[in-house]
Amino acid sequence: MCAQYQDRDMCPGLKNQQRVVIMCAEVLPWRCHRSLIADAEIVRNVVVWGIMNKTTVHQYTLTTFSNIDRNKKPIQIYYQE
After folding, report:
1. Is residue 1 part of a domain?
2. I need a surface site. Which of 38, 39, 43, 75 has the fewest CB within 10 A?
3. Are 75 and 50 in contact (CB under 8 A)?
4. What is the pLDDT of residue 3?
5. What is the pLDDT of residue 1?
6. What pTM value is reported for the model?
7. Total domain count for the chain?
8. Alpha carbons 64 and 67: distance in angstroms, whole number
């Protein structure tokens, strides 16, 4: 799902601009696809929240290793290794 995510057809709720919840068994969001999905939405000016547990949420920011090319359509996100 990660590689194809920039195409919103992979998630119909996002395509239709609805609220979407994405769950993952990985406890740390920076170790899974959630950070990549968050990056793709942040560059579209969507506010993305991470639910860490029953009492803790955090607002995502772009990952430090992402490079955004806003000159391409759709906007392209590249990741440094």
Report:
1. no
2. 75
3. no
4. 42
5. 38
6. 0.69
7. 1
8. 8
Distance CA 65, CA 17 (A): 27
- State which residues form the domain around 31: 8-79
**Host H or E run for residue 58:** strand 57-59
Q: What does the buried/exposed string (b/e) look like for 57-73 if buried means 16 or more CB atoms within 10 Å of the residue's CB?
A: eeebeeeeebeeeeeee
- SS3 helix, strand, coil % of the chain, rounded to 5? 25, 15, 60
Q: Is residue 71 part of a domain?
A: yes
How close are the terminal C-alpha atoms of the chain, in Å?
19
Residue 74 resides in a domain: yes
Q: Say how far apart CA 26 and CA 23 lie, in whole Å.
A: 9
What pLDDT, in 10s, does the model give residues 21-47? 777 777 776 677 788 888 888 988 888
